[in-house]
Design brief:
five-stranded antiparallel β-sheet, 173 residues, 2 domains, globular, VC0802-like
């Protein structure tokens, strides 16, 4: 899985169809797109570069906004691990080298069906990174998507997560 796509509840099938059509247009006719056990969340596994996919989604939203009706948020995922504090911390430790000493970061956590405390996880991760934290204008976003026993992690440059409604508003159609 290298993307989590959110949608309105009970519109997962339409979101899968929409995503499949868009991915075909992007050049991946073999993308694996499926529902998760969580309502309103689908997972996508594509062979395309995740940042190219984000750019292509933005172009489509800009040029053909009506073709993206069911996707709400498009969240890149770079790595998967078990949903426990130790595994998440180990994976982030291996991934944080992309953040330069002068750059700021923020941590975003979304939990589904998990007992992990967000504050504990934030504290553990913040200990790993001596950089400045910026909640408003961070250079990097550490994304942690806990979904039951599996956690998706992304250490992403700013503006890598697409909120479709926000993108459409910014373009003021």
């Amino acid at each position: 899985m290298n993307f989590i796509i959110t949608c309105q509840r009970n519109l997962e099938e339409k979101t899968i169809e929409e995503t499949r059509k868009l991915l075909n247009g992007f050049g991946d006719s073999n993308a694996k797109i499926s529902k998760t056990q969580f309502s309103g969340i689908i997972q996508l596994d594509t062979s395309l570069d995740i940042f190219d996919v984000i750019k292509k989604f933005r172009v489509i939203i800009d040029e053909e906004p009506w073709s993206v009706r069911f996707c709400s948020r498009i969240i890149p995922i770079q790595d998967l691990c078990q949903s426990d504090l130790k595994s998440i911390k180990e994976n982030i430790t291996m991934m944080i080298s992309c953040i330069e000493k002068t750059q700021s970061y923020r941590i975003s956590i979304e939990k589904r069906n998990s007992e992990i405390k967000s504050n504990d996880l934030i504290s553990e991760i913040a200990e790993l990174i001596p950089n400045k934290v910026s909640l408003e204008q961070a250079d990097w976003e550490i994304v942690i998507q806990i979904m039951g026993k599996t956690t998706g992690i992304g250490i992403l440059p700013k503006n890598s997560i697409i909120s479709v409604s926000k993108e459409k508003r910014l373009r003021s159609y």
